[in-house]
Amino acid sequence: MCKELNISMTVPVSNEKKRAFLHWFMRHHKVEAHDMDWFLKDLLDDEQALIHVHFVDDITDCPKGIIITSHLNEQITFQFFKGNVRTDNVYTAYHEMNLYQEEPIFIQITFPFCSQNSLYQEVIEDDVQTKLDIKSTTEKVLNQTLKQGRREFLMREINLALEKRNQEQFMYYSSQLKELEK
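The chain above was modelled as a monomer; its predicted structure follows.
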C-alpha cells in the first residue's frame, strides 16, 4: 500500500524479483550511457527505493514515472515525468526518488519480446487496478483542492463584504459557503 496515494496493489512484488529482472535487463540490453547504468545500479542497491517502485505495462495515468525503451541494436532511451513535466535527465529522476522516498514511482520498460519475458511478467503489477486507484485518488485530491480553493475565495469575499459593510454581498457569499460545506 502506497502511503501518499493510498494505492493498494493486489499482489506485491518482492524486491528480489525486481532486482532479478533489473539485473537481467542490464545484462541483455545496451546500457551504454554512464548515467543510465549508474541509475539502474543505484536502484538495485537501494532497498527503500525498490519498495516504492512499481513496474507497469502502461504508464499513461500514473502521476510520476520513468519510461525506459530498448530497441534491437539501439541505445536505451530514458524519460522521467511528474505530472506534465518531462525530461530525459536521469539525475532529475534520481533526485526526485531521493527527495520523495515515500512516494510511489511507476516504471514502464519496453523491449523486444517483453510480453514473453517471464522475469518481466513477474514484476508487472496489476496496472488495471492501479490505474483505477490512481484515477480515483487523483479525482479525490483534485476535488478536495478545488473545494479548498473555493472555500478560501468565499472566505476572502465574505471578509471583504464585512469590511465594506455590504450586507447583500455578505449574504450572497455566506450562502455560497454554506452550500459548499454541505
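The radius of gyration is 22 Å.
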